[in-house]
Design goal:
With about 140 residues, the chain is mainly alpha-helical. The protein has 6 helices and no strands. α2 packs across α3. It is globular and about 50 Å long.
């Protein structure tokens, strides 16, 4: 239980989302930002790349400041990771966004669609954890 880092991180996410929304009218949905790089429009590439670089540089900055970032161990094969990424991409297209777009930005804007999407994400995540831990035994 780490309330101070959690509150700090949440505040920084909110500030970042607001900084993208207010002056630019853009939602900080990572899947939409990434998707805009697949078929880039003129004037859209730079800010998208900077946003994605900030995701990586944020972690590096945290480590340089003395923060502890645990090693991530991936225990599945590369084909499984590719298939999982593909399925997440399909899901974000079907759901018209991802957890960051709906959960952070959409809920802040009181969007009913984002409430439905975020509730679905959370329910699916909870069921997945239950099945993996208690049914499959992972």
């Amino acid at each position: 239980f780490t309330p101070i880092p959690a509150l700090t991180g949440g505040a920084l996410i909110g500030i970042s989302a607001s900084a993208l929304l207010w002056p630019n009218g853009r939602l900080a949905g990572v899947s939409s930002i990434m998707g805009g790089l697949v078929r880039p429009q003129p004037g859209e590439i730079t800010w998208r790349l900077l946003f994605l670089a900030g995701l990586i540089l944020g972690t590096l900055s945290y480590q340089l400041a003395g923060g502890n970032v645990s090693a991530i161990r991936i225990e599945v094969s590369t084909p499984i990771l590719i298939a999982a990424g593909f399925l997440v991409g399909i899901g974000t297209r079907i759901g018209s966004g991802c957890t960051s777009g709906h959960g952070v930005c959409g809920l802040a804007l009181l969007s009913p669609r984002s409430l439905a999407a975020t509730s679905t994400f959370m329910l699916a995540a909870g069921l997945t954890v239950y099945v993996v831990r208690h049914v499959v035994g992972g």
